[in-house]
């Protein structure tokens, strides 16, 4: 799909994505193309960030070798490293940056980086057996935002990891916990290890504390424009590149007709996303599709301009207090950042 210049409508796009294209897309998103351990800035107020970085440098093979024994001294035996690491922490503490740094810095012939939904979508497109064969012998799989909401998808990923680890594949995964939640972090790790119980002993949990860097210098609210401001913003964006312009209700309906694995193709070549008449969700399935869409928009670092309800207010309290709270809070954080970009 070639990029247009001017104003386009997402609802007019019906992207297709082959299995081969899905595999080719398993690399860090654009914002993390240059992510390295050297560029990760640990917050001195949270020592766990530097500790996590040091552990992951060693996991990726970039740390110092164990000390050798002297003439009359035995070398200290180091415990065998586990094949998997799980980065446990809240939003915006740099987990994805560190995950991408593992991908970039680990010397590996075959390595893949994708979100949980991208891997499960690939299984859906190629079939389980073909996906196993595709990844068999891979050196590294990085899984961003490991989801525990769907038991079926969790079981598929656990089986996949279990089959690949016997061939020497190493794994790194992240997940999110809601900020300021009671027991934040510990419960996330426990949930993850319980759900992948067959693989739990293969993972080392690495805790990362901190505050959401996206909200450290903002008031936590997404920007909502007047109609005149919106028209001017979309016009300016279209003069420089490609801007989309869709009614919120129409886009939400269109997302139901496009598989989430294709959302990345939906926004291909787009420089600014425009949404008119944003409103509060009443359907949870629609809300979750929007979360998946926003993940792709945020990964691509595309700014959003919108009218109507502030985008961080689209998830009603009954949804925020339910089982998908983590996803909604992550989306709200990203929506705030995207409207301020």
General description of the model:
The chain has 341 residues and is α/β, with parallel strands linked by helices. It folds into 2 domains: 135 residues, Rossmann fold, CATH 3.40.50; 151 residues, P-loop containing nucleotide triphosphate hydrolases (Rossmann fold, 3-Layer(aba) Sandwich), CATH 3.40.50.300. The strands form 3 sheets. It has a 5-stranded parallel sheet, sandwiched between helices. The chain has a 3-stranded parallel sheet with strand order 8-9-10. Helix 11 links the parallel strand 9 and strand 10. Helix 4 packs across helix 5. The chain is globular, with a radius of gyration of 21 Å. About 7% of the residues have low confidence.
Structural class: alpha/beta
Can you tell me the number of structural domains? 2
- Tally the helices: 13
Give the CA-CA distance, first to last residue: 26 Å
Return the string of H and E elements.
EHHEHEHHEHEHEHEEHHEHEHH
C-alpha Rg (nearest Å): 21 Å
CATH topology of the largest domain: Rossmann fold
Low-confidence stretches: 63-77, 178-185
Name of the CATH superfamily of the largest domain? P-loop containing nucleotide triphosphate hydrolases
- Strands of the biggest beta sheet: in what spatial order? 3-4-5-2-6
Described by strand count, sense and barrel closure, the largest sheet is: 5 strands, parallel
Give the CA-based shape: globular
Q: Report the β-strand fraction as a percent range.
A: 5-15%
Give the beta-strand count: 10
What is the architecture of the largest domain at the second tier of CATH? 3-Layer(aba) Sandwich
Helix content: 25-40%
Quickly name the level 1 CATH class of the largest domain. Alpha Beta
What integer is the average pLDDT? 84
């Amino acid at each position: 799909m070639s990029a247009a210049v001017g104003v386009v409508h997402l609802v007019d796009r019906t992207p297709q994505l082959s299995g081969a294209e899905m595999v080719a897309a398993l690399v860090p998103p654009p914002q993390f193309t240059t992510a390295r351990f050297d560029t990760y800035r640990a917050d001195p107020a949270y020592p766990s960030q530097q500790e996590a970085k040091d552990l992951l440098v060693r996991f990726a093979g970039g740390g110092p070798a164990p000390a050798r024994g002297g003439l009359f001294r035995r070398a200290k035996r180091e415990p065998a490293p586990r094949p998997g690491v799980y980065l446990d922490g809240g939003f915006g503490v740099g987990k994805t940056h560190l995950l991408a740094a593992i991908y970039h810095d680990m010397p590996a012939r075959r390595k893949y980086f994708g979100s949980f939904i991208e891997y499960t979508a690939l299984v859906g497109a190629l079939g389980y057996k073909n996906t196993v064969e595709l990844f068999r012998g891979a050196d590294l799989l990085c899984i961003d935002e490991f989801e525990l909401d769907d038991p079926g998808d969790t079981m598929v990923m656990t089986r996949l990891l279990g089959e690949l680890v016997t061939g020497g594949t190493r794994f790194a995964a992240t997940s999110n916990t809601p900020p300021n939640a009671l027991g934040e972090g510990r419960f996330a790790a426990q949930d993850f290890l319980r759900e992948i119980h067959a693989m739990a002993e293969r993972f080392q949990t690495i805790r990362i504390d901190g505050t959401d860097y996206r909200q450290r210098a903002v008031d936590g609210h997404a920007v909502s424009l007047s109609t005149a401001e919106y028209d001017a913003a979309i016009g300016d964006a279209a003069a420089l590149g490609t801007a989309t312009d869709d009614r919120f209700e129409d886009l939400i309906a269109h997302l139901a007709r496009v598989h989430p694995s294709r959302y990345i193709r939906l926004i291909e070549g787009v420089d600014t996303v425009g949404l008119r008449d944003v409103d509060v969700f009443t359907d949870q399935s629609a809300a979750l599709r929007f979360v998946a869409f926003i993940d792709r928009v945020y990964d691509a670092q595309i700014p959003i301009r919108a009218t109507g309800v502030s985008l961080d207010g689209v998830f009603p309290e009954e949804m925020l207090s339910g089982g998908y709270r983590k996803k909604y809070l992550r989306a709200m954080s990203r929506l705030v950042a995207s409207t301020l970009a």
